[in-house]
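Task card 7
Instruction: Convert sequence to structure tokens.
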Amino acid sequence: MTETIYSTELDIRPIPPPEKHPTIFRVFDGLEIGESFLLINDHNPKPLYYQFGFERMGKFEWEDIESGPVVWRVGIKRIA
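Output:
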């Protein structure tokens, strides 16, 4: 994804840990094909990437924008 305009920005940092992934997937599932959102997190979201790959294989694009050490920003786009 290059020069992406994000449909929304989701700062997941203040959300309690058990609610983080369900919230992220709810936002993703609410996107139209071609829309994307910017995820902001306080740790590396690599486990989330693997979960997306398992649960939404072929339906998303993932772009690492900022990789810590304090803030991680990832663009997630719905492609199918």
